[in-house]
Predict the structure.
Amino acid sequence: MISDPKTQNRIVVATIIITLVSAFTLVSNAAYYGGSYAMVSTLDVRLNAVNLVDYDPANLSINPRLDFVFGFRVPLTLQGDANLMSLTAAVKLDGNSLSYTNFRLTIPADNRSLYPGYRANFTVSGRITDDLDKAALLNATNTDTWVFQVTLTIFYRVLDSPQSVRRVQFLYEGVRII
């Protein structure tokens, strides 16, 4: 027991201050770590456009390119440490899988880090070289039906953890032929 009341009061006050600072730090760290995962899970992803480039249905020797333009947004209220790494897409056109075409994008280093208010558009593209995939395009041209089912796979990292995956599905009607 400490005999001097002033010393005892100083120790109690110091203990209360240290406890409050520690509690605030713990809450801040928990919010930051939780926000890192929330940034990815609440990431607003939209399929903004589908473009078909260099397409000539009369000349199937030309290999057209199919572009999917995705928009990404992070709410302003979240804080954390999350990074987008790459995107891949599995595509069906009018129920026909475009399985011989790779749709992939590695996110540029300067656009990887997510932050509150983050907004970016990324184009995931694939060059159509296989005859079966070209036949799906030709069928869509002949029927004038362009319904895309797209499964976007987002590869990301949170904090220093190994790479993780989130999948988002879209149904998109129409195409812009350029």
